[in-house]
Amino acid sequence: xxxxxxxxxxxxxxxxxxxxxxxxxxxxxxxxxxxxxxxxxxxxxxxxxxxxxxxxxxxxxxxxxxxxxxxxxxxxxxxxxxxxxxxxxxxxxxxxxxxxxxxxxxxxxxxxxxxxxxxxxxxxxxxxxxxxxxxxxxxxxxxxxxxxxxxxxx
Length: 154
What we know:
Blueprint: H1 9-25, H2 41-50, H3 54-57, H4 68-81, H5 92-99, E1 113-118, E2 131-136, H6 144-153
Antiparallel strand pairs: 1-2
Helix pairs in contact: 1-4, 4-5
């Protein structure tokens, strides 16, 4: 979303990715009645991807009657489009090329990346707001408290 509340191409790509995952997995983005590890579609689908268990992620109503390559591409495109770092998301054209087997599927990390925000140093007057980066969910990259502690000690 842009600051004015209107959709942007990045939010459209993200939404396309979530819809792709909904179609592939037969689930809503949030299933409050599911167990905690399965309640949110995006992290759960990324976990299935990381375990190479895409077939397990398939909509049960398909009764295993699907082309595995097509399902794999649909899930990969869904994850790619919904990547937490919007700068790593594809264009719709790139996503469609993968779905049409015109381009190879994206190479995605096995764990869902998580955004990490860093506090800019005191006296930094460049960009307003905090700079962000993406770290692998397996990394302990939430080191901003130590950065904040150092800033408070100044």
